Amino acid sequence: MKKLIVLFIAGSMLASCGKKFLETSPLDRKTIDAFYKTPTDAYQGLVSAYSMLNQDGYGNILLTSEIASDDAFGGAGNADQGLNQWDKFINMNDINSAAWSKYYQGIYRCNILLQNIDGVDFKTDTATKNRYIAEAKFLRAYYYFDLVRMFGNVPLITKPLEPGNYFIPQSSPDSVYAQIATDLKDAANALPAKQFSAIPSSEYGRATKWAAESLLGRVFLYYTGYYGKQSIGAVVSKDAATAAIEDVIQNSGYSLVPKFNNLFRASSDANGFAGQNNQEGIFVIQYTYLGLGDANQNNGNRVQVMIGIRSQVLGPYYKGWGAATVNPALYRAYQIGDTRRSSSIISIDDEGYASQYTLGDQAQYTGYFIKKYTPISDKKPEDLGGNFQWDNYDNYPVIRFADVLLMGAELNFSSNIGKAQGYLNQVRDRAFQDQAHRATLSSLQQIMDERRFELALEGHRYWDLLRQGVSVAKSAIDNVGATAAFNITFRPETKGLFSIPETQINLSNGTLHQNTGW
């Protein structure tokens, strides 16, 4: 743990530039003692906390959880064995170290800001101070939610550690979720309630009241489902979670992009792309090509190059590593007429690339690749002065309005079926571009199925399976393929948790214990 904390301190003040408000000065030559004096200092500290959102493709929960789910395999090259750990639940030393370090560095930066912000002279501008505090709490909750979903038993740290106090034992998940919910409630009460149309472009990517309320709904549904609870302790009840989601739906000004395919550059019509920060993106991680080939900047979307078609350009699609090949079962599961299938998944055969495609050293080739975030040749990073390995720049919408509608349908299912039906209808009407494919809502399973199709390959499926029960996850994920490469057995003894990095356990002086099954 000591080494881990030293890593936090060494990296905590390095702010990398990003889109819009993330373009600010680096802090690598300033010490904490001489810092946090002016509002500009506080702002730079906040940017430092945000900048951890961009770190490392291997530490991106989207990639990890999609490969672990039933919708994608590990893929990539035949020599890229690391991805098999997530795909086949194999214990490989330290494969999750990027995620562990990323989240704790993000938490550390939030804690530093929260501890020192009272020393900043905001004069009479208490609104800005309160906003910075709320954004830091939102980010801390965001980082902890990913961390506790992945690892379950993690140290709960809400202030910077003092020298000699580096060995912090793991806390119960109940305690961590209570802290997450508390931070999100505080954030929702203090963050701006501007409707989407009133948010200036310079603030895209920053947390809002709507982002905090949406994330609170997601946290509530996961925690109560996975742990079989009725509420998040005494912090958030079902009624409170439902009210938060309702507030977003009714008052945020966010809405569905009219055509699903226009949500993503790789699937959009000519000139039809809705934009990187469109009306549907409630919380969107910002990426940029402005690192211009400097891998240390960590500004680009590394997942994009990891999932791109391996080492070749086909039609509009640019090259990549070929990770997270799509399970054909997902492609086949879509109904005829559902525009989300061809917008979410590249089919080598159906799109006419079979004669052009070269297998090479692609592992677990299925004929299907993720389309939503795949790199495209138009305005590729090299055209803009960057490098395709580091500088892909499509944003990642962590929370879309469609997701919130489906959360609203789920939360209202047992109390207001009419409202739940209406929210489901909105999502399906957009998917099929008509009202003829509406389905009478009679079970929660219909909503879970709709989530699979609507949010496919966006990093949600694995968690949606787990919150329905470990047995449900096993039934969906277990796969007996025609070849050994596709044989996958979910191990219920792990309860779906990932392995804690062995280096952290070895450095923890006995305070960290590995999750069961690893």
Structure description:
A two-stranded antiparallel sheet has the order 1-6. It has a two-stranded parallel ribbon with strand order 2-3. Helix 9 (238-251) packs across helix 13 and helix 13 runs antiparallel to helix 14. The two termini are 19 Å apart. With 518 residues, the protein is mostly helical. Helices cover 41% and strands 4% of the residues.
State the helix count.
18
Q: For the record, give the distance between the C-alpha atoms at the N and C termini, rounded to a whole number.
A: 19 Å
Order of helices and strands: HHHHHHHHHEHEEHHEEEHHHHHH
Number of strands: 6
Overall pLDDT score: 93
Shape: globular
In short:
The chain has 518 residues and is mainly alpha-helical. The chain has helices at 2-11, 39-51, 61-68, 83-88, 97-116, 126-151, 173-190, 209-227, 238-251, 302-307, 328-333, 339-344, 401-412, 417-432, 444-454, 461-466, 470-477, 502-506; strands spanning 281-285, 309-310, 319-320, 345-347, 368-370, 396-400.
Give keywords.
518 residues; mainly alpha; two-stranded antiparallel ribbon; two-stranded parallel sheet; 6 strands; 41% helix; globular; disordered N terminus
Task: Describe the secondary structure blueprint for this structure.
Elements: H1 2-11, H2 39-51, H3 61-68, H4 83-88, H5 97-116, H6 126-151, H7 173-190, H8 209-227, H9 238-251, E1 281-285, H10 302-307, E2 309-310, E3 319-320, H11 328-333, H12 339-344, E4 345-347, E5 368-370, E6 396-400, H13 401-412, H14 417-432, H15 444-454, H16 461-466, H17 470-477, H18 502-506
Parallel strand pairs: 2-3
Antiparallel strand pairs: 1-6, 4-5
